[in-house]
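Quick one, probably user error.
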């Protein structure tokens, strides 16, 4: 820490003095590594400092997970953040023609934007940008409601996870006034979407409807 004096006032600042080139991370012991190798679940610095302080989420103190995100559009209008739904059939486990039921192994993915959030330490592959359980519990996420579902109809095969998908068309900001000494990139929540994903075993009636997003809840109904 450095103490900067201005008149009768003094401020403590953490200053980074580095000989590392642009786009590099300066390990605590002075070693330089590529910034992309920071917080990649593999120690690249000899002192392991590249795997410290690997927080992903940033948000203000007035953030509320109970309030639906509001998205700003190019025409300057605002609306509740929309939810994109992806559904993939991994396997057809059983078909019962007499009862009209199909037992499926399904992959479900929901994607949305939350402009109130910012992200750190993101990687190009979203699987490396997964929030831990504590972080997931701090943010807003859509409810999934299975209508007319019997308890025996549904089984979670893979526990739900939330990750962040990088929008590669947007250049992230740096967290240092001097970009040549920056050790972090800041990714805006308004351009880098969140993804909720899970794998389930589900008994679907032949007349089951596709998933539908309405009022920021995701419905899937067996008829």
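Nope, works fine. Designed sequence:
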């Amino acid at each position: 820490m450095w103490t900067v004096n201005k008149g009768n006032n003094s401020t403590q600042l953490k200053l980074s003095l580095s000989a590392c080139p642009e786009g590099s991370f300066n390990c605590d012991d002075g070693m330089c590594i590529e910034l992309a190798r920071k917080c990649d679940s593999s120690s690249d610095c000899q002192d392991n400092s590249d795997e410290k302080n690997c927080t992903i989420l940033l948000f203000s103190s007035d953030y509320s997970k109970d309030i639906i995100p509001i998205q700003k559009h190019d025409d300057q209008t605002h609306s509740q953040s929309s939810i994109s739904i992806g559904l993939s059939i991994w396997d057809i486990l059983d078909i019962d023609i007499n009862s009209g039921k199909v037992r499926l192994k399904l992959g479900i993915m929901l994607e949305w934007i939350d402009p109130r959030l910012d992200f750190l330490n993101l990687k190009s592959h979203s699987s490396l940008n997964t929030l831990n359980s504590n972080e997931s519990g701090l943010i807003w996420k859509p409810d999934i409601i299975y209508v007319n579902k019997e308890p025996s109809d549904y089984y979670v095969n893979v526990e739900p996870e939330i990750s962040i998908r990088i929008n590669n068309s947007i250049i992230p900001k740096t967290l240092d006034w001097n970009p040549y000494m920056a050790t972090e990139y800041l990714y805006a929540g308004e351009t880098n979407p969140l993804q909720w994903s899970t794998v389930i075993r589900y008994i679907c009636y032949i007349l089951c409807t596709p998933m539908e997003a309405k009022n920021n809840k995701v419905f899937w109904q067996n008829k």
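The longest strand covers residues 84-96.
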